[in-house]
Amino acid sequence: MRYDQISPVPPLTKVTKNVIILCVVVYFFDLITDSLGIRFGFYRLNEIFGLVPAFVLEKGWVWQFVTYIFMHGHMLHLLMNMLILWYFGAEIEMRLGELNFFKYFLLCGVGAGLFNFGVNLLVAKMTGTRVLSNPIVGASGAIFGILAAYGIFYGNRYFLVFFLFPMKAKYFVLLMAGIELVMGIEANPRDNVAHFAHIGGMAVGALYIYLKYVKGPLFGRGQSKKDAERDKLRRQFRLIVNQDDEENKQDGGGPSYWN
């Protein structure tokens, strides 16, 4: 939880809420159809809409780079992803706006899938093994992109890691990136986690946020018009609170806020 946060419960914003609802509905639909043995053209639902590198290469199922984001392997996987999305995503959504946030979410998710796909191809070529045929599912790559945005926008905020240790958000994000990199390199077959998808989502998200919202002119139009106007006003105006009522009356009862 945030170290400086009065309430540990974040707001549930529109896009974040809709993504959570979509992921929950897709999860239970997949669970029910799989439990009933229902197949779609001899394939399970997660083989069609999960990211299967072998199917992308052999069948050209490129839609999987988008659809895999909204599918999850088990209840704990879904629960953890949705809680993290709610906790961090709501504030990023309020910062970017609804449409820009959804685009950013998809960008990080697709970027994570492409990065993990590239790593799979490289490993298969180096080791002479077959490209993975197991489906990769989950919004984790997109969520790691949201963590990257949070670390850039609110990097100096403190969190209580494990509810015990205060740590700035930017260091927490870097710590998570380091852990994912180490675990990805170790490549424990029993891990069953696409760590390079997490790294890819974080890298794509950090690059996008840095170029568009930090450097600005290097990518697109930079910060939004509203953000630019808000920053300009902050530099131009300062708050003066009248503490002496008598002095205020002598000056003609002027306002409490001045340029």
Description:
- By secondary structure, the chain is mainly alpha-helical.
- The protein has 11 helices and 2 strands, in the order H-H-H-H-H-H-H-E-E-H-H-H-H.
- Strands 1-2 form a two-stranded antiparallel sheet.
- The protein is globular, with a radius of gyration of 23 Å.
SSE layout and pairings?
Elements lengths: L13 H22 L9 H5 L3 H7 L4 H4 L7 H22 L1 H30 L12 H14 L4 E4 L3 E4 H18 L8 H20 L10 H12 L8 H6 L9
Antiparallel strand pairs: 1-2
Measured by DSSP, the beta-strand proportion falls in under 5%
Stretches where pLDDT is under 50 for at least 5 consecutive residues are 1-6, 217-223, 238-259
CATH class designation of the largest domain: Mainly Alpha
Number of helices: 11
From the 3D coordinates, which CATH architecture of the largest domain would you assign? Answer: Up-down Bundle
Number of strands: 2
Structural class: mainly alpha
Shape: globular
Strand order of the largest sheet: 1-2
| Share of helical residues | 55-70%
CATH topology of the largest domain: Rhomboid-like fold
The largest pleated sheet is described as: 2 strands, antiparallel
